[in-house]
């Protein structure tokens, strides 16, 4: 995301630098949504195929190490795209290749997790996630509040909750505490989705530039996936 100069501190050069024609912004949004749709399609197909395989859960338990391959496929491309935007995220076709690897890794993790839940339960959570995503997207677009201003606060809370989660991995956590943590993560990812949608639409303190279509798609896709997984923890029925 790029930060616009504070209100009242615009000069003519700033205005030209941040002035993006409405039609260009619309095309940018359509492009990002198209990429996200493709990512969701890939994830849905892979997850559906895995869940249709009756022995998938047993296979993943026997080959647990494969999760590390999925994580490497997720983390490395994500870091390359976000931390090195000028080098990788804005260079075709390397940006699409990295995003594809990231999407395949994420899809593998999602499919592996979903294989331990009942198919109907996963489907219902997916429908609920879709509805929640639509509601949050509409709220982000129509609200007058600029949530992008709070991005560093939300990042701070997410880092704090991550540390708490790492600590709790080594202790016996009561069911109520686990539910509370999942609810907090669900709220955080929901706020991240609002922030990213507003940054995509533009006109806020932080906005995606037209060259950041890959990063914008990656972040919004990840917001939705993480909301789905947290809802699955809360509402899903294990096999």
Structural write-up:
This protein has 239 residues and is an all-alpha fold. It has one domain (2-235). The protein is built from ten helices and two strands; from the N terminus they run βαααααααααβα. The protein has helices at residues 12-18, 22-52, 56-62, 66-83, 85-89, 94-114, 119-142, 151-168, 175-201, 213-235; strands at 2-3, 206-207. α2 packs across α10 (213-235) and α7 packs across α9 (175-201). The longest helix has 31 residues, at 22-52.
Strand line-up of the largest beta sheet: 1-2
Count of separate structural domains? 1
Q: Point out poorly predicted stretches.
A: 5-18
Helix percent band: over 70%
Strand content: under 5%
N to C succession of SSEs? EHHHHHHHHHEH
Q: How would you describe the shape?
A: globular
Tally of helical segments: 10
Radius of gyration, CA atoms, in whole angstroms:
19 Å
Q: Structural class from helices and strands? A: mainly alpha
């Amino acid at each position: 995301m790029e930060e616009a100069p504070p209100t009242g501190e615009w000069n003519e050069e700033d205005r030209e630098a941040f002035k993006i024609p409405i039609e260009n912004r619309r095309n940018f949004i359509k492009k990002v949504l198209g990429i996200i749709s493709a990512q969701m399609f890939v994830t849905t197909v892979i997850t559906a195929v895995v869940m249709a395989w009756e022995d998938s859960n047993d296979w993943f338990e026997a080959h647990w190490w494969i999760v590390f391959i999925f994580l490497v496929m997720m983390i490395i491309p994500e870091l390359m795209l976000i931390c090195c935007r000028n080098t990788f995220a804005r260079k075709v076709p390397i940006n699409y290749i990295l995003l594809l690897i990231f999407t395949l890794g994420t899809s593998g993790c999602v499919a592996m997790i979903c294989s331990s839940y009942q198919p109907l339960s996963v489907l219902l959570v997916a429908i609920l996630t879709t509805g929640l995503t639509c509601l949050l997207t509409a709220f982000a677009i129509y609200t007058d509040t600029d949530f992008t201003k709070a991005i560093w606060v939300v990042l701070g809370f997410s880092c704090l909750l991550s540390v708490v989660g790492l600590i709790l991995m080594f202790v016996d956590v009561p069911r109520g505490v686990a539910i509370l943590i999942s609810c907090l993560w669900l709220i955080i990812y929901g706020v991240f989705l609002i922030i990213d949608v507003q940054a995509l639409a533009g006109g806020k303190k932080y906005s995606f530039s037209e060259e950041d279509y890959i990063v914008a798609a990656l972040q919004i896709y990840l917001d939705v996936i993480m909301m789905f997984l947290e809802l699955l923890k809360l509402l899903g029925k294990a096999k």
